[in-house]
Design a protein that fits this description.
The complex is a heterotrimer of chains A (459), B (112) and C (229). Chain A has 459 residues and is mostly helical. In chain A, 73% of the residues lie in helices and 2% in strands. The relative contact order of chain A is 0.09. Chain B has a single domain, classed as Helix Hairpins. Helices cover 64% and strands 4% of the residues of chain B. Chain B contains three helices and two strands. Chain C has one domain. In chain C, 66% of the residues lie in helices and 3% in strands. Chain C has eight helices and two strands; from the N terminus they run ααααβααααβ. In chain C, strands 1-2 form a two-stranded antiparallel sheet. In chain C, helix 3 packs across helix 4 and helix 7 packs antiparallel against helix 8. Chain C is globular and about 60 Å long. The chains are: A mainly alpha (459), B mainly alpha (112), C mainly alpha (229). Chains in contact: A-B, A-C, B-C. Chains B and C meet through helix 1 and helix 3 of B and helix 1, helix 2, helix 3, helix 4 and helix 8 of C.
């Protein structure tokens, strides 16, 4: 089965969904389910649209990395859609297009095609966030997103003018081989970094996040906070792996930005009293960690980190947003004792937070441990210190959050979770624990990914 | 020279984005930025030779003449259409905001 | 103060771009390119690794790139236009639309003149679409021209509304037809959007024009209508 179907099928049904309005929500459900199923049958490798040689045509590449990315994005997307699709029927075609855009982002191996998919995913995200009825935040998101993609486009055009090639892997090889003075390519890479930094929520390009995720609902919170965040982190990882060549000054700028993102994000989360803001600031910090891990070259553990964080974030945003929808307030004090009446949800939520935090017996611990060990071996003690400090701050506010949620109180808020939500939360929490206790699966994923590293694709 | 002009347009657009608080002016600045970018893309493909021609030519003659780079022209067409899409969404959001707050100024819109 | 800071920031960025590009050994000067070394050479000579017959290569290389070599980008572009037009409808659409009350009333000259102009613009649009293989820009300008001929009607008559549902239907069918053409290629040759028959490129060009016209007309109509009270 050709990998282009993952993009073409959602697009086709999105276009049809405009005429067949009644069927559109069912299209959405069926197609997103089809995409998850199809992942089991597609073959890895590269194809070129139109059958040209990979140098000239637009190439789509599926390797173990992008397969993990696709699994994460499509599974999360299906879960979110299954919970929400009948609440926002009018959005069905737009959601399908955003699914196509996200899959395209993960698959494409062409710089300009990546820009097109960024815009498709971006525009559908702007439209999806209009469901929060706050046009001001959406407008802010749109302006920043457009500036970001304009910078990305500027960077890619400069690269094209220099080397005449748009295929990411071929371009990366050329730069690696030809360029002796790395500072000569620093400018386009800086622009591409800024462009992706807007969507990945890196400082100082993330002022849209507060309006979008701080006022999210049960659709936009998990979608933007978990699915889009993981997809763009994977794209960032791909570019850092196959394309980026850091000159020393560029690496310095990038590291400063990332460390600032991590620390300021954690500090803001610590200072906040609103539950949704705590989550969004902590995800800014985690995005910084993920990009930092990629920028320092630990691609395999970075990939697993993003995948795990994606699933954990889904639980966090889902649980909190449903509660906020029903309580009509996202102050921490109003949500005190949320889990007293919802013990199952509470258990799942706690597992997800503790895994993000990196406590033992959860999968997040193993990933964080391995990243830190790898960093200490290189040795990059400064970054080890930054991540440990971030985890410490994270620990304080997450534990505070959990204590507040579990704390017995007379008027604990009554929040009803549907069975689907409970089921999804428990399954993900169970998986996180299982992966955390049995090291075998994670290590085997790690070694498969390492195997890929040996066989670098030459188009 | 055209390269400087395009960078100047990008700079003007960026300055407008940083200083304006009026929604319509922000959208205009965004468009100025995009136009500067599009001119930049086009300049990248320009070939300043007497014999260089526009890339419209039959296959048989292609080996014997020099044409300017056709790829940036194709890319810019895509970029223009994408710009139209974002502008349309931005303007409809502006209309939505005006319906809600009765002003185009971002600072005068309350936090509810 | 804020303005000065913004000014300094913007100027610094501009100077940084110009300085680092003009002193760059990799970035060619204005008026000088090395595109015959890169992927453009393949597009110009049509030696791109496929087994393409000369009959399938359009005279206009830009059109060839748009609908053939990089047709996937164009599919994405059509998608962007499509999603923004349904987005505008989602944001501004109302249950029972009527024309918005504008401050100015079209005079006699405007309404007669624009009707005459409508025919010319509409036919020119169709002409450009049909000659997209030779004219610059493929069929996008043609589609945009058809849409602007409808816009002229909107501006010259303050009660006019076109039958938007037909344009919507056309837009939707055209966009899904584009994907379908790609899937046909996948079915017959094993490659998505394969260009194995001269008919393929013509179909795609016409579909793009319909999609562009439908999308823009939908956007115009949504901006010029409001809820009936």
């Amino acid at each position: 089965m050709s990998i282009v179907l993952l993009i073409a099928v959602p697009l086709f049904f999105a276009f049809l969904g405009i005429i067949l309005k009644k069927a559109a929500p069912y299209f959405l459900l069926l197609v997103s389910f089809f995409n998850v199923l199809a992942l089991g049958f597609i073959s890895q490798g590269a194809i070129v649209i139109g059958g040209y040689s990979s140098f000239y045509g637009i190439q789509l590449v599926l390797n173990s990395y992008s397969l993990i990315g696709l699994y994460v994005v499509n599974t999360l997307f299906f879960v979110i859609v299954a919970i929400n699709c009948f609440k926002h029927k009018k959005l069905s075609p737009i959601l399908l297009i955003s699914l196509a855009g996200l899959n395209g982002l993960l698959l494409t191996n062409d710089l300009f095609n990546l820009f097109v998919f960024m815009e498709i995913a971006g525009i559908s995200a702007y439209l999806i966030t209009t469901t929060t009825k706050d046009p001001k935040s959406t407008f802010n998101y749109l302006v920043l997103g457009t500036i970001g993609s304009s910078f990305y486009l500027l960077g890619l055009i400069i690269l094209y003018a220099m080397f005449g090639v748009l295929n990411i892997r071929i371009l990366g090889n050329i730069i690696e081989g030809v360029v002796t003075n790395k500072a000569a390519v620093a400018l386009p890479f800086l622009f591409i970094f800024i462009g992706l930094g807007v969507e990945t929520k890196l400082l100082p390009f993330n002022s849209w996040v507060k309006g979008i995720l701080g006022k999210s609902n049960a659709l936009t919170g998990p979608l933007v906070g978990a699915v889009y965040a993981s997809a763009f982190a994977f794209v960032f990882g791909n570019l850092l792996r196959y394309l980026f060549v850091f000159s020393e000054s560029l690496l310095l700028i990038v590291s400063i930005l990332l460390v600032a993102t991590i620390l300021i994000g954690e500090a803001m989360a610590y200072a906040s009293t609103k539950v949704r803001e705590i989550l969004l600031f902590s995800s800014i910090a985690q995005a910084g960690v993920a990009v930092l891990v990629f920028a320092l070259g630990y691609y395999t553990w970075g990939t697993i980190l993003i995948a795990l964080n994606g699933f954990s974030k889904l639980i966090l945003y889902l649980v909190v947003n449903i509660a906020v929808d029903q309580v009509k307030s996202d102050e921490l004090s109003a949500l005190k004792g949320l889990f007293v009446n919802n013990k199952l949800i509470g258990a799942g939520f706690s597992v997800a937070t503790l895994s993000i935090l990196g406590l033992p017996i959860f999968a997040g611990f193993i990933v964080k441990m391995n990243i830190l060990v790898a960093m200490a071996n290189t040795p990059k003690f400064f970054f080890v210190g930054v991540i440990l400090l971030a985890s410490l701050i994270e620990g304080i506010y997450f534990i505070k959050l959990l204590i507040n949620f579990w704390f017995e109180q007379d008027q604990a808020p009554r929040v009803k979770y549907s069975y689907v939500v409970i089921y999804v939360t428990l399954v993900i929490a169970l998986l996180i624990t299982v992966f955390g206790v049995y090291l075998e699966p994670l290590n085997s994923i790690h070694s498969t990914l390492n195997l890929v590293k040996g066989v670098v694709m030459h188009g | 020279m055209l390269l400087y002009a395009s960078v100047l347009l990008i700079v003007i657009g960026l300055y407008g984005l940083l200083t304006n608080r009026n929604v319509i002016k922000i959208i205009l600045s965004l468009n100025v930025l995009e136009i500067g970018l599009n001119i930049f893309i086009i300049t990248v493909g320009f070939l300043d030779l007497e014999e260089a021609i526009a890339p419209i030519i039959t296959l048989q003659q292609r080996a014997s003449v020099i044409v300017v780079d056709p790829l940036p022209q194709a890319l810019v067409l895509t970029a223009i259409v994408i710009g139209v899409g974002t502008t349309a969404i931005g303007l409809s959001l502006a209309k939505k905001m005006y319906d809600k707050y009765h002003t185009f100024n971002l600072d005068e819109m309350g936090e509810e | 103060m804020k303005k000065i800071l913004a000014f300094i920031f913007a100027i610094t960025l501009g100077v940084m771009i110009i300085l680092s590009l003009s002193n760059n050994e990799l970035f060619t000067d204005f008026g000088d390119t090395n595109h015959y070394d890169g992927i453009s050479s393949g597009y110009i000579t049509s030696e791109v690794g496929g087994d393409e017959e000369p009959a399938l290569v359009p005279v206009n290389i830009v059109t060839g790139i748009l609908v053939d070599y990089r047709g996937f980008d164009t599919l994405g572009e059509v998608t962007v236009l499509f999603v923004s037009s349904i987005g505008v409808a989602l944001l501004l659409g109302v249950a029972s639309p009527k024309r918005i009350n504008l401050n100015f009333k079209p005079n006699f000259m405007l309404s007669v003149g624009s009707r005459a102009l409508f025919g010319v613009m509409f036919l020119t649009g169709i002409y450009i679409v049909l000659h997209a293989k030779t004219s610059p820009g493929g069929s996008f300008p043609g589609g945009a021209m058809i849409a602007s001929s409808i816009l002229i009607l909107y501006l010259s008559n303050d009660t006019f509304r076109t039958d938007v549902s037909k344009f919507k239907l056309g837009k939707s069918l055209a966009a899904s037809g584009f994907v379908l053409v790609g899937l046909i290629g996948l079915l017959f040759t094993g490659e998505f959007l394969a260009n194995f028959h001269p008919f393929i490129m013509d179909t795609i060009l016409v579909l793009i024009a319909i999609d562009v016209a439908g999308g823009i007309v939908g956007i115009i109509d949504n901006f010029l209508t409001e809820e009936r009270v």
